[in-house]
Specification:
- The chain contains five helices and ten strands.
- It has a single domain (about 15-200), classed as Glutaredoxin (3-Layer(aba) Sandwich), CATH 3.40.30.
- With about 200 residues, it is of the alpha+beta class.
- Strand 2 and strand 3 (about 60) form a beta hairpin.
Length: about 200
């Protein structure tokens, strides 16, 4: 996929991914190394991404505890994103389809990095265009910044003439049904990769 000058994407790779591995420790919940279990990056034990406190597009305050018993896929983006975010959400739809009946135990959360433009009605309509069960989350500028920093997610406002766009990272984070951050999936990975890792997490006690 090509990226336009209007929307430059910051995808964590190389040394940045190495940093995530170092921070996570690359271990299973039992402390034993995991080799080849996940298609994505195993970040079990990471000291970041513990929780969030944001408002969904229906006006309800949300934390990870609301989704206990489900696998949560969390992604940072914005509604006016021309290609990367629609691709990520379309892949989430396909991932859910591939999971079959287990797809009902997947909750997709879209955290906007553009709260100035992404009001609740805009976010609700955007989610409905993909799957009405997907939830968009938002906060004020400070909560947005704090949440992104707590996940080591990058975003930046970039002026474009009389308007602006947003640079942002494109990892998808997976939490197991107990609410523990386990996997970071890259944007270039397939729906099959995503479904594989989610299916593994659904087996987590």
């Amino acid at each position: 996929m090509g990226f336009t000058n209007r929307h430059r994407i910051h995808v964590l790779a190389g040394s940045a991914v190495g940093l995530l591995i170092t921070l996570a420790g690359g271990c299973s919940r039992s402390g034993e190394p995991v080799v080849g279990q996940f298609k994505g990056l195993d970040i079990t034990g990471a000291p970041y991404g513990k929780d969030f406190n944001l408002t969904d597009h229906n006006g309800q305050e949300r934390t990870l505890a609301d989704f206990k018993g489900q696998v949560v896929m969390l992604y940072f983006g914005f509604v006016q994103c021309p290609d990367v975010c629609p691709t990520a959400l379309s892949r989430a739809v396909e991932t859910k389809r591939l999971l079959g009946a287990d797809g009902e135990r997947l909750q997709v959360l879209f955290v906007t990095v553009d709260p100035e433009r992404d009001a609740a009605p805009v976010l609700k309509a955007y989610m409905a265009a993909f799957d009405p069960r997907f939830l968009a989350l938002s906060g004020d500028l400070k909560r947005t910044r704090d949440t992104a920093e707590s996940f080591k997610a990058y975003y930046k406002k970039v002026p474009t003439g009389s308007s602006y766009t947003m640079d942002h990272s494109a990892l998808s984070y997976l939490f197991d049904p107990s609410g523990v951050l386990r996997v970071a999936l890259r944007h270039e990975q397939t729906a099959q990769d995503y479904a594989h890792d989610i299916a593994l997490l659904l087996k987590t006690p």
